[in-house]
Q: What sequence folds into this?
């Protein structure tokens, strides 16, 4: 059992409150996921040819610290002095003029204990073991701004309790996934996707789902087509919430075993495993509220 939340802001004037709203939503999901917490924020795009990457020190679970200054200096030497670097506890946010594959290869060779949580033009992903209130405070989530976000509180059932096994998972630029449920055929898909060149770092079934959608998009599918194909390809019980640079989508499996609720007003759209995570949002008393139908795709995007 896990808790998932998503929030899409329709009005730009609300973007300064995104982190505060998301914090309240995640705290309400504490009982559904006390092992670890993670969130993806979609904020301002990088400038020019730079990509934005959130780096994770995978040694954090063993209590080992990383010399981020050494990493900063090495990044600037390799990719140029225009590289931006901001340390955030066990994470670092960088903007660098390269592509994600090149950065991953360089990190694997020079700093093998660093993983890329997420990369692209607008996405930032942070996650850590602990209760929602503690992780929220650690990253000062309430101060974050942006247009939309996904969050996850994890109760581990299928893999280890580590920061690396925590959600959200991202295996492609500006796309991520949070998941409540379990997949029964993830081992077969992990093997297939790795043969297709998709990097999968853990034995978590949710990362396989994220990799699956990345693969489908690379094949030329749009997100709705990829989600439709997933209903046949991914066996199990699940609610998926998937973030992209322009918005997010929600889908339950064909049986609809895992709970979900969606609420929409003229100012925002929110989804959660339980309504209590939505109940404190401003204007919720005027919201249209419904339980998403099994096997049906719901998506929202920024206006072109």
A:
């Amino acid at each position: 059992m896990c808790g998932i939340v998503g929030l899409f802001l329709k009005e730009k004037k609300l973007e300064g409150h995104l982190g505060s709203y998301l914090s309240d939503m995640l705290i309400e999901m504490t009982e559904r996921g006390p092992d670890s917490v993670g969130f993806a924020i979609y904020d301002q795009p990088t400038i020019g040819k730079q990509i934005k990457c959130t780096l994770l020190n995978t040694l954090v679970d063993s209590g080992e610290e990383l010399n981020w200054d050494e990493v900063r200096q090495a990044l600037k030497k390799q990719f140029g002095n225009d590289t931006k670097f901001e340390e955030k506890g066990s994470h670092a946010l960088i903007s660098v003029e390269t592509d994600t594959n090149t950065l991953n290869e360089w990190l694997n060779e020079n700093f093998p204990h660093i993983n890329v949580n997420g990369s692209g033009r607008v996405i930032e992903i942070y996650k850590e073991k602990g209760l929602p209130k503690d992780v929220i405070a650690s990253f000062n989530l309430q101060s974050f701004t942006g247009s939309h976000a996904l969050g996850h509180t994890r109760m581990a059932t299928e893999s280890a309790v580590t920061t690396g096994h925590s959600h959200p998972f991202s295996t492609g630029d500006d796309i991520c996934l949070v998941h409540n449920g379990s997949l029964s055929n993830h081992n077969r898909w992990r093997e297939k996707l790795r043969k297709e060149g998709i990097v999968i770092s853990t034995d978590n079934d949710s990362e396989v789902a994220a990799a699956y959608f990345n693969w489908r998009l690379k094949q030329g599918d749009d997100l709705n087509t990829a989600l439709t194909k997933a209903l046949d390809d991914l066996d199990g019980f699940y609610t998926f919430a998937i973030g992209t640079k322009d918005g997010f989508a929600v889908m339950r499996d064909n049986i609809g075993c895992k709970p979900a609720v969606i609420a929409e007003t003229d100012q925002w759209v929110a989804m959660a495993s339980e309504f209590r995570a939505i109940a404190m949002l401003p204007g919720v008393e005027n919201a249209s509220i419904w339980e998403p139908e099994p096997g049906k795709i719901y998506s929202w995007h920024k206006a072109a």
